[in-house]
Amino acid sequence: MREIDRRTFLKGAGILGGTALGLGALSRLEAQGRSQVLRYGFAATDIRRLDPMGGPNAVDKAVLEKIFDGLVRPVPGDVNVEKIEPDLAESWEPSKDLKSWTFRLRRGVEFHNGFGEFTSEDVVFTLNRAKDKKTSIYYKTYANFADIKAIDKHTVQINLKGPASPISLFPALLNWQAGMMMSKGAAEKLGDKIKAHPIGTGAFVFKEHLPQERLVLERNKSYFRGMPKLEQIVFRFLPDSSSRVLAFKAGELDIIDLAPEQRAIDQAKGPGIVTQGIGPLTVHKLHMVRTKKPLNDIRIRQAIAYAINRDDIVRFIGKDIAQPLYSIIPPSFVGGLEDVPERLKYNYDPQRAKKLLAEAGFPNGFTIDPVFISEREQFRRPMEVIQNQLSKVGIKINVNVIAHPAWHKKNDEGSNPLVLRAATRFPTANFVLEEFFTKGTKRNFSGFTGADEAITRAQKEFNPEVQKMLWREAQIKILEDLAAYPTHAQGTYFARKSYVDLGVKLNADLCICAPIKRNARLT
User: How many domains does the chain fold into?
Assistant: First the structure.
């Protein structure tokens, strides 16, 4: 387990600070009463980075998506790339061959803190930064971008190396990851400081950050869609689940992240409290490293699959949290496999698993040692269930629980033979397939390349229906090879007081958090 410093421990335990549960000194508006100040309890020790292109985690993104806008956005309350609407761009027009897209920008949109009007030069700056390996961790997403041209102050043209359908192009232009539109002027003036003091056009403005204590956003009174109803959002850092719930129930927080486990939801429930889960789904899958013996034998991978009982995993995690998953891409994603062939579901069959082990030369089973797993319960608890299930057919895995960053390192360097990985990605098939199942990518843990042709063809295809067909073909190949075994899927969970009106009917949101939009308010 990782070590935490004494201040962090005391804070999480509710011993340090200025309020009953140790939430530290109040911000100015908090001290004046609730008013329209929303207090949000984050499941984190602190933010990690506030650079949209630097690889922000879920907590960072929850802050950034309130500060920045994209050229386009999903319909509020949902995440469907086939239902995209204008954001900073008023309209767009593709060339006939879909290799050039022209966007006309809104006029009069202002950046925060007096950094001037948003123009085509800011789009050029942002997208060039997004596709540069030196400045963007997401540069591969922009590999098809040839050049970006400012036609005039409010018109920008994106020229591509190959055609791109809206399904392929628009995810790169949302206020999500590197698609968040940045200020060229702010970057030139602030330099590296912009990574800690983000300047956007969004509904909320960065105010202050006190490490391991709080981060404050204030409303953008000049927001182009209208002034937000909330005056401030105060994010409190509370990594301990029980501490968050206690502070929430004591009235010191209005909304909190919930740990993805049944007991956290049950603990938060009560009068005047709403618990909620939203998409996009987080996909959990067990990658089997095919370059390591005996996992290089398809019969061994099949035996592992038949020895796992998805329903037991779901019951263990909780009925309100998880659902069984039968393909690498959930059917709710664009390009997901809706009808998985029965033979590729690998439903629980321990006798068949034992027979396959015997055929592979292991009638008495075998041991895999070591297998590494993250200390985080989201990963550790399902792996404990899998460990127990495999032992019943003679497969012993010696699990080593290690710190989360160290676990990532083990996975990425290829020294972990069984990788139980979770991924929350934009809900089109390409993002999971490209990251985890193509040749040469760091997270292709299994070393599988059998679907590369279908994935590559889909990326170059401009007919959305053909793209979907190719993505489904890739998923079938992955399941046939058992490069990875899909176990379960779960959403993002939070609790809010009933007086918190999020202002939108929620199904899904890209921030992987409790979404707080311009029209959210405290009633």
Answer: 3
